[in-house]
Write a structure and sequence with these properties.
alpha+beta, 352 residues, four-stranded antiparallel beta sheet
Length: 352
């Protein structure tokens, strides 16, 4: 399976990275990560070019990794700086070093062409760190399914009523149509549910009672970044959806890292505009969100098992699948553009 490489993937939470060497598999690429003495994060391909021993099994000496097999030592740029018993260091004694950024409490890596690594292409949450908003680090779920199955799930408001009955949905949303909006590099799937009971999450944590208007906006940027804008207000109090920030609102952010063809890591955090001065509810609210996300995990892993059991099983398409179908085309287009760029670069190298 091919993955989009010219993008920023989360590696792990920033507070999980220290002076120890840790191995991470990202889109089938092994990466070793550690924190330099100056506090910044470094990432190298986790395989010594001599016998492919994982560098993560070696020793960190200052800001260089000594391979645990034969002692070859590599600096943060991936250049070998020492070979025990050999003064001449071959030019090809290198490992790949990856661009790294830290944002939203996460360490992000760029697997593609380093010349194209652009921080403006990172996942963006404008409310994060702004006055009137409270940001909370969430967690990470390891789900044994293809990452695009999780992307499909997060582009599907229709499942919320049936899967998340005790957290994110109520029966009132079942018959409300889903709206799809498409950009060149984005998809927004949304619906506005008027005059309905609040979802359990907002009833419990935002203290919403009675009948309300509520909304879900699933804003997607390929290959696998989501800003899920969910909120509520007293019935009829917000006439213009663009003013929904004046109601009770939470951005539930999901950034996904494909591990391999059948495993994905779902990192999540949230930013809210209610009870912003009450961090004591953070843990309980996170637990409720995680409970909901684990409900998806159960279903997605069973779907993966069924797909592997019978790869030729017939599946039908419904109207609610419009956004997921568009998503697959977007991701495939990115992969094809990268493939074409690699071919062009390779041909140019041969010509010179």
């Amino acid at each position: 399976m091919e993955f989009v490489k010219n993008t920023w993937y989360p590696v792990t939470w920033s507070n999980e990275v220290d002076r120890s060497l840790t191995r991470h598999m990202i889109a089938n690429e092994p990466v070793v990560v550690f924190r330099r003495q100056d506090g910044s994060v470094a990432a190298l391909h986790d395989a010594c070019p001599h016998r492919l021993a994982p560098l993560s099994l070696g020793t960190l000496i200052d800001d260089a990794i000594e391979c645990g097999y034969h002692g070859m030592t590599f600096d943060c740029s991936g250049q070998c700086i020492r070979i025990p018993g050999q003064e001449v260091i071959p030019k090809n004694a290198t490992v790949r070093a990856y661009p790294i950024e830290e944002r939203y409490g996460l360490v992000w890596i760029w697997l593609g062409d380093p010349k194209q690594a652009d921080i403006s292409k990172m996942f963006n949450v404008p409310q994060y760190g702004q006055e009137g908003w409270h940001a909370v680090q969430g967690g990470v779920l390891r789900i044994e399914c293809n990452y695009l199955s999780l992307v499909e799930n997060l582009l599907d408001p229709a499942h919320v009523t049936f899967v998340h009955k005790s957290t994110l949905g109520t029966p009132a949303g079942a018959s409300i149509p889903v709206n799809n909006e498409y950009g060149d590099n984005s998809i927004s799937v949304w619906r506005w549910i008027p005059n309905a009971p609040p979802i359990p999450l907002f009833a419990n944590f935002a203290k919403m009672t009675g009948q309300v208007d509520r909304w879900h906006y699933y804003d997607y940027t390929p290959p696998c970044f989501f800003d899920i804008d969910m909120g509520t207000c007293a019935t009829g109090s917000i006439k213009d959806p663009e003013m929904r920030h004046t109601g009770v609102q939470m951005h539930s952010c999901h950034v996904l890292t494909p591990v391999d063809d059948r495993t994905v890591l779902q990192y999540w955090f949230h930013v809210r505009n209610f009870r912003v001065d009450e961090p004591e509810i953070d843990q309980e609210l996170n637990a409720a969100l995680e409970f909901a996300f684990k409900e998806d995990k159960i279903i997605l892993e069973r779907i993966q098992q069924e797909q592997e059991r019978d790869p030729n099983a017939k599946q039908i398409t419904l109207g609610i699948d419009a956004a997921p179908r568009r998503m697959h085309k977007m991701v495939q287009k990115l992969i094809e553009e990268e493939r074409q760029h690699l071919n062009t670069t390779a041909n140019a190298g041969v010509a010179t």
